[in-house]
Write a structure and sequence with these properties.
Layout: H1 16-35, E1 53-54, H2 67-70, H3 82-88, H4 93-102, E2 106-120, E3 125-135, E4 145-152, E5 166-174
Parallel strand pairs: 1-5
Antiparallel strand pairs: 2-3, 3-4, 4-5
């Protein structure tokens, strides 16, 4: 992961201040996610955060490198039964981080990220991130694409005093 000043093409941040805030968050989050102990991400999630993973690919495709993720996918087309769908929806920050910790090691290519600020108010920031990643330390090719949606709340929301309060829903790996 490159920790230099990132210059993304086609991004919609709204302002230079917002761009710097989001880029700082992305660098810190994905540094921990890719290279650190993912338990360090606990502070990034709100106590009532929700998370799900969606993989739009055919699990019978032996060539797909996303097969590892498919069993965790909450794809409504392939995930049969309400109990399984409920089980795959993570409801608290410890559950989310524990889940993230069992996923394969990755390397996100921050230079490939395209960021779009969808909503910005005094009480919420919602932005999407599109980009590339690959599993590490294997030499598998980079996956064709991913889309993360982050919903961020200010630190001073009552009831939660985390360092950076973030709800991240959902992570979508696109084929």
């Amino acid at each position: 992961m490159v920790l230099r000043t990132l210059s993304f093409q086609g991004d919609a941040f709204g302002s230079e201040t917002m761009k710097n805030l989001i880029l700082k968050f992305l660098k810190q989050y994905y540094w921990i996610y890719d290279y650190g102990d993912r338990q360090g991400l606990l502070g990034a999630y709100h106590s009532e955060a929700c998370f799900s993973l969606f993989i739009p690919f055919n699990p019978q495709d032996p060539a797909s490198s996303l097969a590892t993720y498919f069993r965790y996918s909450r794809n409504m087309k392939t995930c049969k039964g309400p109990n399984l769908r409920a089980h795959l929806l993570k409801h608290t920050k410890p559950d989310i981080v524990d889940f993230l910790s069992v996923l394969p090691r990755t390397q996100h290519d921050l230079n490939s990220f395209l960021v779009d600020v969808c909503v910005q108010t005094e009480k919420m920031l919602c932005f999407s991130v599109n980009g590339l990643f690959k599993e590490a330390p294997t030499r598998t090719p980079t996956h064709p694409g991913l889309n993360y949606i982050h919903i961020c709340l200010p630190r001073d929301i009552p009831g939660d005093r985390t360092q950076a309060t973030v709800i991240k829903v959902p992570d979508i790996f696109m084929k």
